[in-house]
Each structure stands twice: as C-alpha cells, then as structure tokens.
Amino acid sequence: MNTYLIPANTKKGTLILGIFRPFDLILFGAGVLITLILLLIMPMGSTGQVILVILPAAIVTFLIVPVPHYHNILTIIVEGYTFFTNRQKYIWKGWCVKDVKDVKASK
After folding, report:
1. 16: helix, strand or coil
2. How far apart are CA 76 and CA 70, in angstroms?
C-alpha cells in the first residue's frame, strides 16, 4: 500500500490566522479607519448617508473574503486584470532548434 503524506495547504503556515496576508489586514484596517473617521465627521441624517459612511469598510471586507480556489476576491480581481492587460497571443517556439525551421517552412 503506497501512502503519501502531502500537506493540504502549505501556504496557510505563512498567513496570519491561516487566512490573511499582511497586506489584507492593512487594507482592512485602512477601510475600517476611514469608516470610523467618517462616522465621527459626517451627519447621519438619512439612510443614504449611513450607507456612504459604511461603504469603505464594506468594500474592503468584500475584497478580503476568502473564496475557494483563490486566496480572496482581491486576488481574483488582480489576476483578471493581469490576464486581460498582458499579451494574449502566445508564440510557439518549439522544443528544440530543429522545430524552428519546420515552423518557418510551414508559414
């Protein structure tokens, strides 16, 4: 019987609380701090004003929520941006020098 011991997620050991990167916590702290400052400064006369004041904390909380197969929503957004802004046409160079001649001849 071949059994292997493979760690489920070795990346978790480098994360704070097994979930957050330092940047995630800094981003969350900044959003909450902005919300707290707005709570002290802005009047709370209507529901719209309350929503606007709470919006920074809500946005950063949404960005750092963990999701399956990715680290968090921020990671998905950054990877999507990188995918769409980088080169989309990939040029095949072959496995060896002889392949290059064959590719040029076929064009």
Report:
1. strand
2. 7
